[in-house]
Every structure is written in C-alpha cells, then in structure tokens.
C-alpha cells in the first residue's frame, strides 16, 4: 500500500516538473519570437499553461513558425 502511494507520488512529481520546464521553455520561446502560428501569442500562452504537457508539445510541434 505504501509502495503504491510512493510510486504514484513520484510519477506525479515527475509530470509536474516536466510540465513546469516545458511551459517555461515554451513561454520564453513565445515571448522571443516575432510571430507564431496564427499570430496570437496570448492564445498560445494560454494553451501552453492550461493544457499542460500536451499544450507545450503542441506548441513546439505546430505553433512555432520558422525564423
């Protein structure tokens, strides 16, 4: 029982840290770029912050325009 709890807590912490790192990297990239897909930086910031890891991955795969 205790082992399962520790495992679940460890997974949760890893996901949270991954989300924070990806969100910070995406937010920094959004701020520094002149334009992003759709030309709406605020929308991309909301997607990255509120959708979590998936939102950050969507931004890095789809939202970045080539410089």
What would you note in describing this structure?
This protein is mostly helical and 67 residues long. It has one domain. 79% of the residues lie in helices and 0% in strands. The protein is built from 3 helices and no strands. Helix 1 runs antiparallel to helix 2 (41-51), helix 1 packs parallel to helix 3 and helix 2 (41-51) runs antiparallel to helix 3 (53-63). The longest helix has 31 residues, at 2-32. It is elongated. The mean pLDDT is 90.
What amount of the residues lies in strands?
A: under 5%
Domains, number: 1
What are the segments in which pLDDT stays under 50 over at least 5 consecutive residues? Answer: none
**Total beta strands:** 0
Task: State the end-to-end CA separation.
Answer: 52 Å
Can you give me a brief rundown of this structure?
The chain is mainly alpha-helical and 67 residues long. The chain has 3 helices and no strands.
